[in-house]
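Suppose a colleague, Dr. K., hands you the sequence of a protein chain of 281 amino acids and asks what its three-dimensional shape might be. Before reaching for any lab equipment, you can write down a predicted structure in token form. Begin with the sequence itself:
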Amino acid sequence: MSAPSRRRMLALLAACAAAPIPARAQARPLQVGVVPNVNARLILTNYQPFRDQLQRALNRPVEIATATDFRAFYERMIVGAYDLSIAPANLTRLAELDHGLAPFAIYEPGIPGCLVMWKDRRVGDVAELRGKTLALSNPQSLVALKGVAWLEARGLVRDRDYRTIHARNDESLAQLLSTGEAPLAMMSRGELMAVHPDLRARLEELVEFARVPGFVLSTARALPDADVRDLRTAVLALPQSEDGREFLRRAGVQAVRPLALAEMTALDDTVAATRGFMTAR
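The predicted structure, expressed as tokens, is then:
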């Protein structure tokens, strides 16, 4: 090779070495959407070790996201804004049937639903709700749907025997109880535990009325098959890692296990009511 040719070759190699790595070589952050059943600060705190372990297992950045309310979360969920969605079982079943999301795992144990009262305004029996107001933070949640059905089985029909009021968050529920505007609030035990400890100390459970399935994890329809496979493997392996176990501890989850088809079809009696909440304007 002549000297001029050698110089041109060296210059070309130097230019290639200095060129920036194309943006497509950088993995896009995986979006994990978590339903806003508690405040965003608590979600981000609880899911930090979940995110850290997923990043290591997948060798790509992971971002935890949520939304302002259940409906806003659902709307983002069904358009594929989240690669991995973590949501109540009834919301996931609706998204599966109507929009092709693919559920694959579930948290254990199930979620206790309870009626809560203010300690200084104790209620002796649910019959005392008649003619009064029941407070709810997430009326479209599976806990609320099962709770309303549980009350109906005891002769208390919503909008006939009692009214409902929607509180903005768990602490607003507690304030409604403290003022006497509502004698009872319906919430999951997780929502109850998210109330500030000073306020929670003044609350008391009247009854646990149901234990509904835990949150279900599903992948977006558009996620590539290889990504789906890797993501499912990483999620189900969470309890085997230190960060995964820390996540379970923070979130009050005992296990993450594969989901059976029958567990989703068993929710079909909630689909119409859930769809009504998600589409009402």
